[in-house]
Design goal:
The chain is mostly beta strands. Helix content is about 15%, strand content about 35%. It is built from 4 helices and 15 strands. The strands form 3 sheets. The chain has a 7-stranded mixed sheet, with helices on both faces. The longest helix is centred in the middle third of the chain and has 12 residues. The two termini are about 30 Å apart. The mean pLDDT is about 95.
């Protein structure tokens, strides 16, 4: 874990209230898709945890939604500015245990970490199927980027304005193993449709690295910290 300074290369809106920020800096410590960074913002006491969408040598891509004052501040940051990020944090997805044909199911701002996951699955010669869920057409993002990885992709919107009308669970089909990230009701619904998998959870965090215990959650193996022991938990250990 390091506190690293990054230079902003891009920061633009890609869907309704959703921004993509591309940063230049040291990404060598990142070990798995599903990890996150904790960003320090001027004038804000607590850092903001943001999932890692993708990374390469000296380039980090984050996708975030403006939901409060901190992320609103981020949306105003411009190319050439600098910010600091504590990273990498958390345990990501374990690709080594993935079956040949998993479903990758994401909803809303739970979609970003699934992009690097899908890329890594393809590189490991797996054949993932991607199911994405959004509220409306104006909220859809990264569909084309997933398709560019050479995987099948389907999209559902709650209001039916794009793709299939309904929820991401309507797209899962008979897949038994899921990689998933999204709001809690979506995760619970996906969980009930499969027999195994890995699920990334959100939680309010104080420190982001396990010291404050503020994001502890009960599992079948005892209490775990979402920031340090997660955010990815296995299907077998989740307690609803």
């Amino acid at each position: 874990m390091k506190d690293i300074e990054f230079k902003i290369l891009e920061n633009r809106e890609i869907a309704r209230d959703v921004f993509r920020m591309v940063l230049d800096g040291d990404t060598s410590e990142i070990t798995a898709p599903g990890q996150f960074v904790n960003i320090s913002l001027p004038g804000r006491y607590l850092r903001r945890p943001i999932s890692i969408c993708d990374w390469s040598k000296n380039k980090l891509t984050l996708i975030y939604k403006v939901v409060g004052h901190g992320t609103e501040d981020m949306s105003y940051m411009e190319t050439g500015e600098y910010l600091r990020a504590l990273m990498p944090l958390g345990n990501g997805y374990d690709i080594a245990v993935a079956p040949e044909n998993p479903v990758v199911a994401g909803g809303g701002v739970g979609v970003p970490p699934l992009y690097a996951l899908t890329r890594k699955l393809v590189e490991a010669r797996k054949h993932p199927y991607v199911a994405l869920g959004f509220n409306s057409k104006e909220d859809v993002f990264y569909e084309d980027e997933f398709r560019a990885l050479g995987v099948p992709v389907n999209v559902a919107t709650v209001d039916g304005s794009y793709g299939k009308k309904g929820f991401v669970t309507d797209l899962i089909g008979d897949h038994s193993y899921a990689f998933s990230c999204g709001p809690l009701p979506m995760l619970k619904a996906v969980y009930s449709r499969v027999q195994d998998g890995q699920f990334s959870f959100e939680a309010r965090m104080g420190c982001g690295f396990g010291a404050c215990m503020g994001c502890s959650t009960r599992t079948k193996d005892g209490y775990k910290r979402i920031c340090k022991d997660g955010p990815v938990l296995s299907w077998k250990e989740i307690v609803w």
